[in-house]
Design a protein that fits this description.
alpha/beta, FAD/NAD(P)-binding domain, Polyamine Oxidase, Chain A, domain 2, Guanine Nucleotide Dissociation Inhibitor, domain 1, 3 domains, 8-stranded mixed beta sheet, 7-stranded mixed beta sheet, 15 helices, 19 strands, 21% strand, binds flavin-adenine dinucleotide
């Protein structure tokens, strides 16, 4: 009362125009509801982010790879007429640990025999334990409390003895989760691996979920979804407050208020805490906001005249515990484009190096590339990067991860609606959590929850 702001009314208000929010909005608009999508950035797509090289060719600054089992993503690729390309995977992968570099067609088998079999045994143990973790309620898994109190760091020290295998395990955790092994629990790892259908460590080809990339960028998936929504999407409209006190939910941005019968919050979990909630969120839901920090990652792309590493018998793939670069992949598109290497600094190094100068980061990354692929790697035609920890409205990447103990104390609040506010986002997905596929499926889930609930309410 007393406010001069006009209030707009909608059936559903979606906070965040990443793949999850856009999917939910599309489904609900298709079902005939009046929907508004409020997006803080000046673009849609969130953690899918298109950049470009000076050639004009597009690059992915965020999400890039699509798995062969990512049905929903593949469906959108077809629907929006985007072009898919297979990930290059011929030649040897390089694994750098304890000051040495080992080569193998399958990076999980690259280490010297004793370390390789230790690592393999640890990964097999993860594979067998994850099968006992219920997808919807990981806290019902055997020994859930103990496993959620056990960090991956301490579990690793129990099951792996050799330094090389320990370091390779660390690099794997950083590359997959962008956190240090001391920051997540064994139970969290098992639940995440289960949500991705397993580790795929037996696969002789590229890593699981890295089979394809798009010509262009994955942001085009979001743009395709947004096209069908027209004016329903409001850019530069950060939601500052969610008020659940009335019959409607009120979403307050800097300039507007929106009264909606149902709200969907589709922003990364820690960013839910940047919004003022009235009344305050229930304790376990707030607990998740506080106990699910974003991972830390710097993604870089180096462009060359040609993919010269292929001629030297390398796939372009590196997994490293040495130095600051955790992972490298061949990012060339087989369209006569330049050779490209794409890679990540992840975990604690990403936090430290995000705060250094861009020049220092570039020098350091290129120095490490030279170690893996020779002097030509140190002189790219172009180099570009995104430090996700300092990227507004994401504040990290690839995803948020629960700290030890959180899955068992607050995990069941992840998808639990609070009044008429529902939670989407790739972190809430049952399958392919943390991937674009999970973001889309979370949008579908939350849209059908809204439709069911409205039907039950008679509207
Ligand atoms: C560097 C990097 C590499 C990745 N690689 C891959 C990959 O190869 N394959 C893969 O499948 N996945 C990958 N991912 C993960 C994938 O990008 C995400 O899991 C997925 O895109 C998340 O979608 P989302 O809709 O849940 O969230 P987001 O994409 O984060 O969307 C949330 C939206 O909410 C907006 N927002 C935030 N706060 C507010 C607010 N208060 N008001 C309004 N709007 C707000 C944000 O601007 C954003 O647009 C990667 C991520 C990163 C960062």
């Amino acid at each position: 009362m007393g406010s001069s702001r006009a209030t707009e009314r909608y059936d559903v208000g979606v906070v965040g125009a990443g793949l999850s929010g856009l999917t939910a909005a599309r489904e609900l608009a298709d079902a005939g509801l009046e929907v508004v999508v409020l997006e803080a950035r000046d673009r849609v797509g969130g953690r899918t982010a298109e950049g470009s090289l000076s050639t004009g060719n597009a690059i992915d600054r965020g999400a890039e790879w699509i798995g062969a089992d990512h049905e929903r993503v593949l469906e959108l690729v077809e629907k929006f007429d985007l072009e898919l390309r297979e990930q290059y995977d011929a030649g040897a992968d390089r694994v750098a640990v304890a000051g040495e570099v080992f080569d193998h067609e399958n990076r999980f088998r690259a280490l010297p025999e004793e370390s390789a079999s230790e690592l393999q045994a640890a990964l097999e143990r993860v594979e067998s334990l994850r099968r006992d973790v219920p997808l919807e309620s990981p806290d019902d898994a055997p020994d859930a409390a103990l496993r959620d109190a056990t960090t991956l760091e301490s579990w690793k020290r129990e099951v792996i003895d050799t330094e090389a295998a320990r370091e390779a395990f660390d690099a794997f955790v950083r590359a997959e989760f962008t956190v240090e092994p001391g920051e997540i629990s064994l139970l969290y790892l098992l639940a995440a691996v289960d949500a991705a259908g397993g580790l795929g460590a037996d696969d002789e080809s590229v890593s699981v979920a890295q089979e394809y990339r798009l010509v262009g960028s994955t942001q085009r998936l979001a743009e395709g979804l947004a096209d069908g929504l027209g004016d329903a999407i409001r850019l530069n409209e950060p939601v500052r407050k969610i008020d659940r006190r009335g019959d409607d939910v009120t979403l307050v941005s800097d300039g507007e208020t929106y009264a909606v019968s149902d709200a969907i919050v589709a922003v990364p979990p820690p960013l839910i805490g940047h919004i003022d909630h009235e009344p305050p969120l229930p304790a376990r839901r707030r607990g998740l906001v506080q106990r699910m920090p974003m991972g830390a990652v710097i993604k870089w792309v180096a462009a060359y005249e040609e993919p010269f590493w292929r001629d030297d018998g390398y796939s372009g793939s590196v997994l490293s515990a040495d130095g600051v670069v955790t992972e490298v992949a061949d990012g060339t598109l087989p369209d006569g484009d330049r050779g490209r290497l794409v890679g990540f600094v992840a975990g604690a190094d990403a936090l430290e190096w995000s705060d250094r100068s861009a020049t220092e980061r570039r020098e350091r990354v290129l120095e490490e590339l030279e170690r893996y692929f020779g002097p030509r790697a140190s002189a790219p035609l172009e180099y570009t990067e995104e430090t996700w920890s300092t990227t507004r409205w994401s504040t990290g990447g690839y995803n948020a991860a629960m700290t030890p103990g959180t899955l068992t104390s607050c995990g069941d609040a992840l998808r639990e609606p609070v009044g008429r506010v529902r939670w989407a986002g790739s972190e809430t997905a049952l399958e392919w959590r943390g991937f674009m596929e999970g973001a889309i499926s979370s949008g579908e889930r939350v849209a059908s929850e809204v439709l069911e609930d409205r039907a039950a309410r008679g509207g």
